[in-house]
Design goal:
19% strand; 9 strands
Length: 230
């Protein structure tokens, strides 16, 4: 998979060189290229924004620099992702879908957002997704891009040390729906007077599986009843 990220703060994407994503890059499972939007400007101040038509507070990112950069990146096979609080919710299902695509482009907006004509234009060229990572507003799209790239990258075969880890995640598809993962424990068996549930020490794999499913269902019902249909 090839990932391109466009930002006016390319250094913000440095964490992509760390942890699982960094190892995936080193292993050539994915490639990540970060592009500075200001390199597509032509004025001495490297201007990327202007006041909004219709008035109002804040600034809007200019279409032309975005067009210059994206014209070099967008293909019919690519998916252009625009992180924005006004987008549709980013979910595990969307991450699973994007993990199957060969080329992802993340356009990280700032200020009041990107001139809407950018999305309108590139929707005629490729798949464009405006995605939100939650019901809150950030200063820019870089943090959201980091979240989505990590969620997507860990679903690419070979990125996780144990492929079964993704299958056991919260929101992973199963015969019981997309449940939250239940509580997990490790050594020692007693910590500050709290015991690990005895079933996990029993060695009975059928009982352990049944306990984990019951815990996942209970946690999901309590915390995310929308996932259970209740």
């Amino acid at each position: 998979m090839k990932i391109d990220v466009v930002s006016i703060f390319p250094q913000y994407l440095a964490p992509l060189q760390l942890s699982l994503v960094g190892k995936a890059i080193e292993s050539n499972l994915i490639s990540v290229n970060v592009h500075d939007l200001r390199d597509a400007t032509s004025d001495p101040h490297r201007t990327v924004d202007d006041t909004p038509y219709g008035g109002g507070p804040g600034m809007v990112m200019l279409a032309e620099p975005w067009g210059k950069v994206l014209d070099e990146l967008v293909t019919a096979e690519s998916v252009l992702v625009i992180p924005t609080p006004s987008g549709i919710p980013f979910t595990q299902e969307i991450a699973e879908s994007l993990a199957q695509r060969p080329l992802l482009i993340f356009g990280c907006g700032r200020y009041e957002g990107i001139d809407a004509r950018v999305v309108e234009h590139y929707e005629t060229k490729t798949t464009v997704l405006e995605l939100s990572i939650g019901d809150y507003v950030l200063a820019g799209g870089e943090v959201a891009a980091l979240v989505m790239i990590e969620a997507i990258a860990r679903l690419i075969p070979g990125v996780l040390g144990n492929s079964q880890s993704a299958a056991d995640d919260s929101f992973a598809p199963s015969a019981y729906g997309r449940l939250l993962e239940g509580p997990v424990f490790t050594k020692p068996s007693q910590w500050r007077g709290i015991e690990v549930p005895s079933v996990l020490l029993s060695g009975n794999h059928a009982e352990i599986a049944a306990w984990r499913l019951a815990q996942a269902r209970q946690r999901t019902a309590e915390r995310r009843p929308d996932l259970t249909g209740e």
